[in-house]
Design goal:
The chain is α+β, with helices and mostly antiparallel strands. It has a single domain (8-202), classed as Class II aldolase/adducin N-terminal domain (L-fuculose-1-phosphate Aldolase). It is built from 5 helices and 8 strands, in the order αβββαβαββαββα. α2 (77-86) runs parallel beside α4 (146-157) and α3 (99-107) crosses α5 (179-202). It starts with 7 loop residues before the first helix and ends with a helix.
Length: 203
């Protein structure tokens, strides 16, 4: 069977998003994971336990979207794989454990979503062109069975239009057609979550 290699551009993008997230304290204690599409059937993803702020070329594994998971990948890999399978346009998925995402996903878990309204930052999200829009970011209960969790998430977010979701007490997933777009989406959503957290603190 032909072995798929992770080309330098993919490695560079994954290392860069790791540094970007670590600099903002979004991936403490080796948390979080990042992936990037290689072709129609394969992705590269960070290996389990890697320091996301100091990723090297050996910290990524190739995963076939329709095959078994290789040893060493994160238990959360099925959540990445499901996104690529269900949306062929996706080129990258970013998962972070920021303070705002973790806290708000716990506090608002029973609502099933966080409603974000009136922020200019909505325009950072593809498909949103005005601050008058409503960004409804879904929240799902966390679970150790990530295969089942991925099925639950995918069934709920189909057609939602928002490039992200939260796992309660866990963190934020965001994606894009390219790594640059995924980075913009995760940064925009994280800013919106921080604004919401600060509004709750001040109210």
């Amino acid at each position: 069977m032909l072995q798929v290699e992770i080309h330098d551009d993919a490695v560079d993008e994954l290392m860069a998003i790791g540094r970007f997230a670590a600099h903002r304290d979004w991936v403490p204690a080796t948390s979080g994971n990042f992936s990037r599409r290689l072709d129609a059937h394969h992705i590269a993803i960070t290996r389990s336990g890697a320091d996301k702020g100091a990723l090297g070329p050996d910290d990524f594994l190739v995963v076939r979207l329709d095959g078994p998971l290789p040893l060493g990948v994160s238990a959360e890999t099925p959540l990445h794989v499901a996104r690529y399978r269900n949306e062929p346009s996706i080129g990258a998925v970013v998962h972070i454990h920021s303070l705002a995402a973790t806290v708000l996903s716990r506090v608002l878990a029973d609502r099933g979503a966080i409603e974000l309204e009136g922020f200019e930052m909505h325009k950072a999200l593809s498909g949103f062109t005005t601050h008058e829009s409503n960004v409804r970011l879904p929240i799902f209960p966390n679970a150790q069975d990530t295969e089942q969790l991925a099925r639950t998430v995918e069934a709920a977010i189909a057609g939602s239009g928002v490039p992200g979701y939260l796992l309660a007490g866990h963190g934020l997933y965001a994606w894009g057609t390219t790594m640059d777009q995924a980075r913009r989406h995760v940064e925009g959503l994280e800013f919106l979550l921080r604004c919401s957290l600060e509004e709750r603190r001040l109210s």
